[in-house]
Amino acid sequence: MNQEKIISVKNLSKVFGDFTAVNKISFEVNKGEIFGFLGANGAGKTTAMKMLIGISKPSSGEATVAGFDVKTNSEMVKKSIGYMSQKFSMYDDLTIKENITFFGGIYGLSKTQIKEKTKQLIQKLQLETVADKLVGSLPLGWKQKLAFSVALLHEPKIVFLDEPTGGVDPITRRQFWEMIYAEAHKGTTLFVTTHYMDEAEYCDRVSIMVEGHIEALDTPANLKKQYNVDSMNEVFLKLARNIE
After folding, report:
1. pLDDT value at position 18?
2. What pLDDT score does 243 carry?
3. Are 209 and 215 in contact (CB under 8 A)?
4. Burial (CB count within 10 angstroms: exposed 0-12, middle 13-18, buried 19+), residue 149
5. What is the pLDDT of residue 154?
6. Gene3D superfamilies in the record, alphabetically (predicted)?
7. 3-state secondary structure 48-60
8. Distance, CA of 135 to CA of 93 (rounded, Å)
9. Do 31 and 42 touch, CB atoms closer than 8 A?
């Protein structure tokens, strides 16, 4: 794995009034790494991700993503990344082709590039027979695969995936992770939030957030060894108990 740092975070915090959602977190992510960003609901991981993708200003601390400062150069950060959210990734009332065209435009691709990429993407996902159907008519698993592929349309250096496999069946989840592996193999960095602890096993390294802090950060194998357990789920439970 490449040791070039593509995300660098130092003492990053986000405060809302009297509440500190993210409290002085620091970590680095290597180029081409699958980095798992774990934590229970309310741990602060979504707030942290919003700062890293340039849509929320940090209260203090610093971070660079793809070489750009998230505070002073958020527009360049947005152009350098892909983003897939579980809650909103595609427009259900547009066709598959229309969605690809729309997001290609947002990502700044030319009409020629969009046409070529649309053709490639539909062939790759074997969606030729349904390319003119509304995305809303697709099964959830297919929507997720399409959303991931669209997030890669402009060949970003980093893709942020926020709970990408939420609600899909185990077979589709495994297929989705195969797509993630294939992309990492090409040198793309994948930053993944998930609450499925078994998925932490698929990551190169994992950070675990508890109440706004990063409480653990290492490879899954090292974390299991450190906490003397057999699964990442047990690591998480031990951490949560220690905090209590």
Report:
1. 94
2. 58
3. yes
4. buried
5. 92
6. P-loop containing nucleotide triphosphate hydrolases
7. HHHHHCCCCCCCE
8. 7
9. no
* Confidence (pLDDT) at 240: 76
pLDDT of residue 169: 85
Say if residues 63 and 10 touch (Cβ distance below 8 Å): yes
What local confidence, expressed as pLDDT, does residue 3 receive? 74
CA distance 155 to 107: 10
CB-count burial class (<10 Å; 0-12, 13-18, 19+) for 49:
buried
CA-CA-CA-CA dihedral for 185, 191, 194, 196, to nearest 10: 30
Q: What's residue 183's pLDDT? A: 94
- Who contacts 230 (Cβ-Cβ below 8 Å, separation ≥6)? 224
103: Cβ contacts below 8 Å, ≥ 6 apart: 150, 153
CA distance 34 to 48: 17
> What order of strands is seen across the sheet that includes strand 213-218?
81-85, 158-162, 189-194, 34-39, 205-210, 213-218
Largest CA distance in the chain: 56
What residues are paired with 203 via a beta bridge?
Answer: none
What is the mean pLDDT of each successive set of 10 residues along the chain, which is 244 residues long? 85 95 96 92 88 94 96 92 82 94 90 94 92 92 90 94 86 90 94 87 93 94 94 87 62
Structural tokens at position 119: 């053709």
CA distance 138 to 115: 22
